[in-house]
Predict the 3D structure of the following.
Amino acid sequence: MEPKAVFDIFAQINQVPRPSKHEERISQWLQTFAAGHGIECVADEAMNVIMRVPATPGYENHEGVILQAHMDMVCEKNGDVEHDFMTDPIQTYVDGEFLKAKGTTLGADDGIGISMALAAITDPNLQHPAIECLFTVDEETGLTGAMKLQDGVLRSKRLINIDSEDDGQIFIGCAGGIDTLAKMHYKSEIINHKSQIAIRLSVTGLLGGHSGDDINKGRANANQLLVWFLARIWPQTELQLARIEGGNLRNAIAREAQAVLCVPMSYKEQIRIEWNHYVAQMEQVFGEVEKDMRLDLETCDMPDTFIPADKAYRLIMALCECPHGMIAMSKEMPGLVETSTNLASIKMKEEANGEAYIEINTSQRSSIEASKHHLKWAVEQALSLACDEVTHGDGYPGWAPNPSSALLEVVKKAYIDLYKSEPKVLAIHAGLECGLFLEKYPYLDMVSIGPQMYGVHSPQERLSIPSTERCYRWLCQTLQAL
């Protein structure tokens, strides 16, 4: 597999558990790597790692550059896979021209960005100006590392972010985002088992994917598929809702969801008929995209408690009202999603005092700051139909495109010199750390590149091996040109 240095480093990184907010081991691994190669290295209080490599002879008077990637990875796995992201290494394998993982996310987002940067700064034959490597923590769930980066740490005025996922494309802007967390507290009630039957509804096999990059690709959201059916049958049956859960991470489209219902025995056949009709309708709506979609109904063991009927009904209505998906397309950049939201997860939890609650996570994105906040308020209004607590995160800013960037021209020319074709210059409907870097270093000239990946933020994540080689050659050509 070429480039060998890049994939060797990536294999080592995938032995190190690195969930978001648990980057202690990968931060230490990077520091050990730097020490082993005689590279100047510091780690800040947030566990961000900064490495500094001097210019090669003859490049001392050239302006330096920052190579930037993030340490953490999205931890998603298929329901039938035994894997502990806190302790287990990622099990990778080659399938044709792709590198994949066995039933889990691969971690190429953004382990491959780190690998490219480390391969470049340890290549004795690569000529380059002074390089700073900035490896940040918690990009996926809060951009904490970028937020906590101190002023004055970075010395260079140019930055190449290696966290994009499209071959031959240069990104010069990204969306801002904000998360919303809602809770519905309730006291569980005892189920009257007499003449009742318990039914489990489950949605599995969906593609899921990145809540920014994939939000406009017509993919189904498992949470929506579930609550749409519950809302449909609620007025016709005397159902009681015992459990409802779906999705996992705020930045991933929900792939799986399930609910457990209790209904009078007399409604069993009616619900089964309604479910079969509903499955046929959803296959008509999503079948072309969701080839492996499964919607299953089965009887199950009778649960001990259920959610009070009035609260359960308001919850289903609130989830139905909660927006999800692409909201608006950009007027300035054709083909770019401007505003979207993701109904990410529904989870049942208990507080320390034993009180039960249902937690709902959503994530809003927009390249227009006002639209991001308008959507946040729309989500709040919908979820307030059922939830007694709705809070919003601090959010992060977008990165406004700079088409006249000097760095952009160098990166474009390096690609043209190598591949005799012009790369696409775009903005991305996903969160990159660049907007936060600009708040502290407003003079930075930045671009973002990366190799081709598919299925990011899902167990279907796969990395193109040929694209990785092309992207690494492009990065090296750029460093020599700089």
Remarks:
- The domain at 178-392 is CATH 3.30.70.360 (Alpha-Beta Plaits).
- Residues 339 and 371 are 7 Å apart (CA to CA).
- The first helix runs from residue 4 to 13.
- The chain has a mean pLDDT of 95.
